[in-house]
Amino acid sequence: MVIIRAGAGEGRETVPDEAGSTQTGPGNGVTGTGLVEEGRGHMVVVGNDALTQRLVGDLAKLYRERVVVVVPDPQHEHGPQLLALHRDAGPITVLAGRRPDEPALRQAGVAEADALAIVLDDDQAVTAAALTARSINPHVRLALRVHNTALGKRLRRLLDRPDAPTTVASASQTAAPALVSSALPDQDQVIAVNSGTCTVVSTVLPAGTTELPPGPDVPIAVLTENGGLLLPDPEHWVAPADEPITLVSLRHHQEPPTPEATRAWSRMGTVLRSFFSRKLQVAAAGLSAVVALLTVLTWQLTGTNLGLSLYLVLLDLSSAGNPAFGQPVARQVLQIITMFTGMLILGLVAAIVLDSVGAVRPSENPRRVRRTMNNHVVLIGIGSAGTAVVSRLVDMRRPVVVVERNPEARNLAAVRARGVPVVLGEFTRDTVWRAARGDRASAVMALTNNDSANLQAVLFARERRPDVPVVLRLFDEAFARTVFKALREAHPNSRTRSRSVSYLAAPAFAAAMLGRRVLAAIPARREILLLAEVTVAEGDELAGRTVKDAFRPGDWRVVAVRQRGQHADWNPAPTRHLRDDDRVIVVATRAGLGRLLRRADAPQAAGRLPAQSGPHPEASPSELPG
Fold it and tell me: Which of 116, 152, 465, 512 could pair with 167 in a Cys bridge, judged by C-beta atoms 3.0 to 4.6 Å apart?
């Protein structure tokens, strides 16, 4: 087991730990069995992957927190990068080669910690570590990464405390809305908030526009093909010359409460639909429409009333022996059609009975891609991120085809169960491209865990279709920036977006550790904005200011104010004062949210801390080196 300790600008010394291994630290003391100095509480992060690296870096760099990171397997995934974090991003202590059991958590200082994030990729390990941590420190805030939604809900109810909230989230589910909106520019991103919903609306401004249009929508970004400006100040905004401009705004929708009767009927419909599969529901609706049509035709031919016409049709459907002797030929033909329809209804009734008792099983044969498939999304890789995006696309009723090279992938059955066609094989083969109908796709999304594989897939797609929009998942910041620039130069008229799941999800976990909540990540070209809920406290950046004075162009903007027990006031008056304990919703850049949520007693850096591996492709201009 190896322990590495470092602080900004501090020297290091080697000290043997209790197990006889080597501990490297800044020589200013170890308190008890923990690894951090006395003073305000620290943060503990347990993990081994990209999200761990991003989260630890954000806590140290943006929020100026002292962090202890427990790395169970330092030789795999992002273990080597995590071991090097103490050199790159402030006061970080690394515990390497330890499972998050009780001795390791105690040594990490969980008993004195303010917050603990467990972002392992194993739900069982996360559950065990969370239960152990809560027994060690009942007052520690918990941020847990759990893939199983049902387990996550039960775990949160079990561990949540009024003085120590528990946040349970999935990094993939958190990042999925931003990934989907990157692939579907025609689909506005919808964000659920406390009192309604918000829509992210993109509008192309007319040529020659010199000022931002007034209105209730809040402008959050002004974008051009080569960059843009986040959170602009409408009063001092200067339009770029000879460039098309896209205005990104936030629009709030106040949803009226649903009447009780409507909710009751909705619940009843949900219960009834749960008994029958969707195919049987469609078949029943179709046959009901045929019966209605036959009733109307019988009414017109016989001149009887509608009730008697329905009675005759039902007799004919049941083959009750009521021949239409002496009736017009049209009536006799209609009776024959009705009897054949009755045969179909008998089959439907049998299917409903068998389906309700579980005798009907879905076909094990995978669904094939239809030859008529068109304007669909081709998604490569069904890891956690890919599966979350597939679920969201299916919920939005957008056609999607999955390409997966591993026939034993753990999420394969879940994707097929949702009726999504899957093509097995390497995407960079012509046969797979043709099977996925790539030549007719509306977008290609490469979401595997391998940056090189994602780049190869996108390059192959661009070779076959230079105009196809692409979204690729890239973690390495310098690599993503180089790739984006090269693809834009090679295909200037094609839409290219690079995204990092850990970059999109890390702010939500960091905010949860600080007792705050990130509602959504909003992509803006290669950058992101965060919609977050913040409580105004004495001495922070918002306290005692008006809404106008609290606005920091390029960093954050207050879009709603809510006092406890009241509905949020969206687009509050610029002269409204922000008081202690007000809850506000802000739109902020990643760096701006870090400054806004930074604790008052956080150490102030003498200068800018170096980035971990270069500027991120989605970082705001204020985060990029000059």
Answer: 512
